[in-house]
Every structure is written in structure tokens, then in C-alpha cells.
Amino acid sequence: MVGVETLNVTIPKSLHGQALDIPAKLVRPKWSKAVGKRPAMMVLHGSGGLLKDGPTKAAPCSDQMESQFATWSDRLAKMGYTVLLPSSYSARGFCDKHSQADKMPKTFDTNTEQIIGRIYDLDAASRYLCNRPEVDCESMGVLGFSQGGTMTMLGVHWQLEHAIQYFRETKGGTVDVQVPDLKPGRPEFQVGIAYYPGCGFDGAVPLSTSTKAAVENKYLPTAPLFILHGSDDSLVEHCSTEYGAGSREIQAGQVATKTSVANLYDITVYPNAGHSFDSAGAKADGGTPEGNVAAKEAALKVALKQIVLALGE
């Protein structure tokens, strides 16, 4: 490896269920000679967006990634992975969910619409990454933060296609956007790393843990899933039975037992840690400075270890 390069690419609307072009960053290693197809990672941003805010109201986003994603993509590329970072928000005309809410289109201005819309972004991005000539489609992982962590969980959901169909049939009238089926042949991720996700999925997948509820409406990852959360983050509620209702953790156990497959759901909750400890460190939302820094350091070790175990070096 002789360096790392960052490219601006577009995931074409021909791959997207809602016919939307998705701008993205592609960060990849530069080699001194041909090395063939190699593993890849997708990195999914949270509610602050992938890109820094733009200089004017007419330009909501700059071309520069937020420091968290610049750091992660550089880190992963230096490990030998091609890294794709789709920009779901700038694709829809805004950059930060919190500071630019007035710029959100009607089809993306609720939490549920964002989750549903980003399923199609994730689907299109996975196909685009799989088709890259330098990428081994059988060795792809996904890493996400906050809302991106939620999308990571959905990216390895065993019934994602069914979830889309079921949502359309039961709740399609509650959103301002079409909810088409996912096309066949979606690439499969080999590992998922979800930093402090919201595990309720904002209604995209039912939360019922009743034994009478249909098994196909319950959550189970198809690849090793590692959720890295903070004890003082309210979003841990549906992720962990120790720190909340733990609906997804319960569902994963129920589905694995019912279908006689391995339960690949794993969650680590760091004490005295709040939301966004990876990006904000000591200044994370909640927790203590010491707890947040400790969580950041410990979670990084877990994330890198599990990525290498799944994809190789």
C-alpha cells in the first residue's frame, strides 16, 4: 500500500428503489501493484449527516466529511478495505437533521420516512459497492453510528424484504413516499457494527415479542452483529434487556430458537457512557467524561477486531 485516496462518486438512481441518485465518498487504498478484489466496508452516518455544513444557505453541505467519518474511512482504508460512505441527507437537499430540519423534503421529514428511505439508500449502496471492480462482494461489512447504527442493524436483518412489504401493507398510508419492493439479489454483509443505534426502528419493523406474533415480523441478524451502546443513552431501550425492554434482543433469541439457527445478536453496553461517545468522546450526550472516553477506546477495539475476524486483513 502506497497511500489512500478519496473519490466523489454517485450511486445511480437505477440501483435505487425510489429512483434517487445518492452522492457518496469512496475511500480506498492505493497499491503499488495489482492486488485483485479485496474486502470492503460501508460506513453509515447518523443524524448529523456525513458532510460538514456548507458555507451558505444555498449550499447546505460542504465537500468535507465530518471528522468522525474522515477518521474512520482513513483508518479502514489503511487496513486495506475499500470504504463507501453514502450521503443520505445531501442526496435530499440538506446536511444536518438537527440544524437544517427546514430543508428536509416532505418525503423525508419524519423519523419513519428517514428509516424507510435509507433502506433504499443502503440497498443501492450495497449493490454499487459489490459491483466495484476492486471489491470482493463476498467480503463486505457495514458500520454505522446512531441512525446509521439503526441502518446497520436493518442491513443484516433476515427479513428486510418482508419488512418492506409488511410496512407498505400496514403503514404505507402513514408516509409521504412510495414503498416499493427491494429488487432480488441484494448483496449480503458478513458483519455489522452498530454504534449506539435506536433499536425501535421507528416502526419499520414490529417490536412485538409475543409468542403469538409472526416469526417473520421479528428481528434477527443474518451476520454477526455487534451493538456498542452506552448505559446512559435512552436509545439503548429496545437494544438491551439489561438496560431496557430489549425487544430486539428478545426477538433475536425467539427467532433463532424457532428456526434452529445461530443467534448472532451481540450487545455490549458501556457503563457511564452516553450517546455519540465515539465522535464526542468526553463531551458525549450523557454519561461521565471518564465513562465516555473509556467506552470510545473499548468499543474501537471490539469494532476493529470483529471486522478483521469477519473480513480478514
TrEMBL record:
Signal peptide: none annotated. Keywords: Hydrolase. This is Dienelactone hydrolase family protein. The keyword Nucleus does not apply. It comes from the Bacteria. Residues 67-166 form the Dienelactone hydrolase domain. The keyword Hydrolase applies. It holds the Pfam family DLH. Gene3D superfamilies: alpha/beta hydrolase. GO terms for molecular function: carboxylic ester hydrolase activity.
